[in-house]
Amino acid sequence: MTILSTTLVIAVVGLIVGCGLVFTAKKFAVKVDEKESAVRAKLPGNNCGACGFAGCDALAGALSRGEAPVNACPVGGSPVAKEIGAIMGVDAADVERKVAFIACKGSCEVTKNQGNYIGIRDCRAAVMSGISVTDCSYGCLGFGSCAEVCPENAIVVKDGVAVVNRNRCVGCGLCTKTCPRKLISLIPVSRVVQVQCSNHDKGPAVKKICSAGCIGCTLCVRQCEFGAMTFDGNLARVDSEKCTLCGKCAAKCPAKVITSAVGPA
To answer: Which pTM was predicted?
Structure first.
């Protein structure tokens, strides 16, 4: 009799608890936004944060609520923007794919280290140490912190300087956030004319430490017929909106620091 009573009590308690759980689940259930789920399915899933949101889930939520433009994902580019636009019922403007660009050509052949660095092989650690590893205090340190964070293995360190494989790069921007010297930027893939130097010192000082640095000769400015070449702090700059990709500036540059075809590694 005791066993039967105990069994009945346990059964009743279990039934009450079960009913309570069902009620609670229905009462506090989080409604799934079908539109958000559909948008999330179209995002690449890199969770890189290049869109300005904390991953693809956060971006999907913002997109479904109309708080972000349908072309907000730089990794997905135009194809993803058009698919999301179709879900949201809006037109998506074409978004050109972006790739990482490293503004330095300071390989071992054109510059040299000041000494043997024996610290942590990390660019950020080297900068925080306060020690100038290379002769150029603006250039690539070559320890590959950018390569380590690249999810697509699109960056390699070659002859002491980081090089981007444009075919692999998805434009997530993780490398731009990692480089302590801010040498890396994202540029439209069609904008191949760029200045691969970040040294703002005057010509003689640059030439002394790096044979591939901008010496401020202004030949590129005089060569450009469209006003696309300017100088900012002794360093040549390219206005991509004005550049016609003629390549005359690159051909005239004595240091060959202006590139008109940044190809894969």
So the answer is: 0.73
